[in-house]
Amino acid sequence: MNKKDEIKDKQLTEIIEQKVLNLLSSDGVIPLYEEQLLDQLDLTMEEEDRLHEVLDLMVRQGKLVLTKKKKYAIPEDLGFLSGRLQGNAKGFGFFIPDNGDEDVYISAENLNGAMHNDRVLIRLLKRNGRSKEGEVVKILERANKTVVGTFERDKNFGFVVPDDKRIYQDIFIPKDEIKDVKNGYKVVVELVRWPHKRRNPEGRIIEVLGHKDDVGTDIVSIIRQYNLPEEFPEEVQKAARKIPQTIPEEEIRRRKDLRHLRIVTIDGADAKDLDDAISIERKKNGNFLLGVHIADVSYYVRENDIIDREAYERGTSVYLVDRVIPMLPKELSNGVCSLNPDEDRLAFSVLMEIDNEGMVINHEIAESVIRSRQRMVYEDVTRILEENDSELIEKYKDYVEDLRNMETLAEILRNKRMRRGSIDFDLDETKITLDLKGKPIDVMPYERGVSNRIIEEFMLVCNETIAEFMAWNEVPFVYRIHERPEIEKMLEFNEFIHNFGYHLKGVSGDIHPKALQNLLEKIKGSREEGIISTVMLRSLKKARYSDDNAGHFGLAARFYCHFTAPIRRYPDLIIHRIIKEFLNGRLNEERVEYLQEVLPGMADHCSQRERLAEEVEREVDDLKKAEYMLDKIDMEFDGIISGVTHYGLFVQLENTVEGLVRITVLDDDYYVYHEKHYCLIGERTRKVYRLGDNVRVKVVNVDISSRNIDFVLV
């Protein structure tokens, strides 16, 4: 079936689904047999032929329930809900409903064989005060076809302890499936029997990754756990190898030739996929002409070809401590698409004339050919601009004036953003250094210098310019949106900052990002800055991709998109194609209809892949931080209380490592958790431990498998 037929088929399914849901959710309608649905629905002949198939699909997806009497009903009408299960190491779970309602507690005995991340149908049992409790009645879709864990051998059988503690049951391995796997080895298990009330899941070992203490096994285990594709399929690699590494002369003639510009790249020292370059000129009228030049990946990766399909599945490159899992094969990402110095490259250029107030008063978007003159690194540029390093100034003497102009323009653009209320988080990122054996030898906050801020500002203004241009032209598009926070979350956050003597304006109504920005300015340099910034970030919604332009709250921007990283982000590649089609007059009515149909699903897929990548990156960072602290037991450190719960205090050290002081080791008093004030208070001494307090701690235990670090207060 080709793409057009797929879309037509999907549209037909959605039309029938909507008709069925409208009928069954009407007032006074009781569950109906299929024949009754046929009688009461206004269906075309084609829709009648498809009805049974669509009803089956809706039952499988949890949109409908088929009763014992073979009648169809809306799940909620019978007290059912569909959604996803989130497991817990203690054996119970939480059900997260599709409809966005509050989570539902599911006890271990009511899981009925469901595992972490399964899509399930539940029945509500009771409400205990504010919380609900439920029981799994049907498993709609299994999430864990394979599981990664540590193998342990018994006399007559083996079992695998899952790495993901949310899968709380060990997996039984029959004797004939053990083969020669040894104790303590990390393995990948394919599940062959699902858990039952009194029976663990059963599996067979399909891959042995290495001993749990071997170099590299830890990160490979996480990669397998999240099902990330390390290697590209052979046919994708073959297609990538066939791509010419030189540019046809006729393609150069067709494009805007910008090889005369002083174009440079500024990236991290170890970056190989250079997908953005910049140029700057000072015009006679005093304005800046900023050029942002982005690798033209869409010239090489054509829509729906084999490389494109693989890139879409991956959605994004994943950056781990010791490796990158790229979205595109290296022949593209490090080769013909990378804007390497002294090589002609195809690009998508945005030339913006920007005045001294930061307004983009004119712009041009063009398919171009460029030639980067210099590959610079962040550290060098920062040392030139902040330290006037004479050696580097001499080395880059032809570019120093450009760099000074870049610094000036970046400051102008940042001030403009601040005036309109853009929220500028300055959260600690972590830099983890490994030795040749993969062992962490240093963990420290990553310093963002002036050079990082220059590139950030230039990419922001470019992304905004593109998004505004496409929005005004009313073209189907993929925006980067950040919706307004929920009022309840802001009220809770306002109550939290009240503990530190701060207050948000306009929090009970339609809060403006400027109120949050003003707070960040007030706390800058204070000991509570990191904590308040973190809690603020958690109180906001997550940015995501959408075909509907809902604006970007955090940036205080009406229009925003991701245009500047098509080597490592699929949404950028989608919009490059759309912009090209628009500029070249190829967006006809049929193509517009097609885009309107497919973009919502593509945007959701890209958002999901981004969230997965973030989860994996965080997991690997936590693992390496735990490994780093393993030989620090009994050592003392200064830290700040970064979290308060009923079971203890989370403390973040100056190197960004976080650990837990369990409430059970606070033995000088009986401490009570005060949720609203984020603190523990001693009943007898009235001693208070609150968020943001400075403390000194000693490391007492590190558990690599759970990534947990235990502290005691000194």
Quickly count the domains: 6
Low-confidence stretches: none
Largest sheet data: 5 strands, mixed, barrel
Number of strands: 33
Overall mean pLDDT stands at 91
Rg, Å, rounded: 28 Å
Question: How widely separated are the two ends?
Answer: 67 Å
The number of helical segments is: 18
Question: What can you tell me about this protein's structure?
Answer:
With 714 residues, the chain is an alpha+beta fold. It has 6 domains: 3-75, Orthogonal Bundle (Arc Repressor Mutant, subunit A), CATH 1.10.10; 79-141, OB fold (Dihydrolipoamide Acetyltransferase, E2P); 146-214, OB fold (Dihydrolipoamide Acetyltransferase, E2P) (Beta Barrel); 234-481 and 551-608, no CATH class; 487-540, no CATH class; 633-713, OB fold (Dihydrolipoamide Acetyltransferase, E2P), CATH 2.40.50.140. The protein is 33% helix and 27% strand. The protein has 18 helices and 33 strands. The strands form 10 sheets. A 5-stranded mixed beta barrel has the order 3-4-5-7-6. The protein has a 5-stranded antiparallel sheet with strand order 10-9-8-11-12, with helices on one face. The protein has a 5-stranded mixed sheet with strand order 13-20-19-16-15. Helix 1 crosses helix 3, helix 12 packs across helix 13 (450-472) and helix 14 runs antiparallel to helix 16 (529-539). The longest helix is centred in the C-terminal third of the chain and has 41 residues, at 589-629.
